[in-house]
Design a protein that fits this description.
With 372 residues, the protein is α/β, with parallel strands linked by helices. Helices cover 26% and strands 26% of the residues. Strands 3, 5, 6, 9, 10, 17 and 18 form a 7-stranded mixed beta sheet that branches. A 6-stranded parallel beta sheet has the order 13-12-11-14-15-16, with helices on both faces. A 5-stranded mixed beta barrel has the order 1-2-7-8-4. Strand 11, helix 4 and strand 12 form a beta-alpha-beta unit. The radius of gyration is 20 Å and the shape is globular. The protein binds cyclohexylformamide and zinc ion. The site of cyclohexylformamide (CXF) has 7 residues, from loops.
Length: 372
């Protein structure tokens, strides 16, 4: 048994408070990880604000993390104490229909990641009153230490700094993968990225990696458009709604882009992005929608006659187990940027400030870093 400081989500709309949480020893297939860095992804913020509901509170949020394995359960294989790991927000059970085909991003356990318990259905964290505390995405990384199943940990090489590695747990594969593996952008094609935050900026660099010749970044924050140019955008559009569609059609001789990526607020951006897409093109949704939004209207005749595809991409539509080591290799070769994604580093007790900065549009990515 040991203690860990953790940012605990107890009440929708309230600041998360740093508490001491008791950690039980890892189960047979689990590992205890000392978190070194965890990114402030917007998904956790949606949960804090009640826009996406999780099944229980209290819960430790945080799912974009890297750290060091301190202790392993008896039945763990392929992970050792001292290993550096990236944690994956969808576990790879290894035995379901999807995992058997290497499609770990579609693992049958995925729908359980907002429930709170560990992969085995029990809890490893307790608060000072002895109540069970959940772990978002079976990770709960807004904490000094966490316990995860081996299905949620990927061993990485030790040369990658933890703050950079943490981003490769969510935002980088989500965005880069959406371009490479979902839309399969080809050299010379045109791309529109709506919403240039953490995911969108990685779609921009993914499209550049794929050799897209026109990458149109769209955002209502001018600073994000400037950043997008550094990541490979060839054009910036500060517009939304019909004005966004018009601006993109103007830049593409009235044809539209081959691939549009909806990286923020799908209820507001999907139709404008769809209409800015060329006939036969792809519209890829990488963003969460609030629980209260249950449908988005696309005129069916328009969908039919324009022969466009609307698709979803979680984890960049590729296995984190296969994709993450590959992305680290691309970083090492200088083919993708990681350091430039980090706007600011925070201590764990500054986490609410970090999210306020994200909400104010100041951060591409804030990262909580821990001293050793
Ligand atoms: C999300 C995807 C939807 C479920 C929770 C985790 N991923 C990352 O931000
Ligand atoms: Zn995330």
């Amino acid at each position: 048994m040991m203690e860990s400081r953790a940012a605990v989500f107890r009440e929708i709309g309230a600041a998360v408070a740093i508490e001491r949480v008791t950690l039980d020893p890892p189960g047979p297939t689990e590992v205890r990880v000392r978190i070194a860095a965890v990114g402030l992804c917007r998904t956790d913020y949606h949960v804090m604000r009640g826009e996406r509901r999780v099944a229980m509170q209290p819960m430790v949020l945080g799912h974009e993390a890297a750290g060091v394995v301190e202790h392993i359960g008896d039945a763990v294989s392929g992970i050792n104490a001292g290993d550096h790991v990236i944690l994956t927000f969808i576990p790879a059970c290894g035995t379901c229909h999807w995992c058997r085909q290497g499609l770990h991003h579609l693992c049958a356990e995925g729908p359980r990641i907002t429930q709170g318990p560990q992969l085995d259905g029990t809890y490893r964290r307790r608060d000072r009153d002895g109540h069970a505390v959940g772990a978002f995405c079976m990770i709960g990384a807004f904490a000094e230490r966490t316990i995860v199943d081996q299905a949620s940990a990927i061993v990485i090489d030790k040369d990658i700094p933890f703050d950079l590695a943490s981003l490769v747990a969510c935002g980088v594969p989500a965005g880069v993968g959406a371009a490479r593996h979902r839309a399969r952008v080809q050299p010379g094609e045109s791309v529109l990225v709506v919403g240039c935050g953490g995911d969108g900026m990685n779609v921009v660099q993914g499209a550049r990696l794929c050799g897209a010749s026109q990458i149109i970044a769209a955002d209502i924050a001018p600073a994000k458009l400037d950043w997008a140019r550094e990541f490979g955008a060839t054009h910036g559009v500060n517009a939304q709604g019909e004005a966004l569609t018009r601006a993109v059609l103007e830049l593409t001789s009235g044809i539209g882009v081959n691939h549009a990526f909806v990286c923020i607020d799908p209820p507001a951006t999907l139709l404008p992005a769809f209409r800015a897409t060329a006939k036969g093109g792809n519209v890829v949704v990488t963003a969460l929608t609030p629980d209260t939004v249950t449908e988005i209207k696309i005129p069916p005749l328009e969908l039919f006659v324009t022969q466009k595809a609307i698709m979803g991409a979680v984890y960049g539509f590729a296995s984190p187990r296969l994709q993450i080591p590959e992305l680290l290799g691309l970083y090492r070769k200088g083919a993708i940027k990681l350091r430039e994604l980090i706007t600011r580093r925070y201590r764990l007790d500054e986490i609410n400030q970090g999210y306020a900065d994200l909400d104010a549009g100041k951060n591409l990515r804030g990262v909580v870093v821990f001293d050793d």
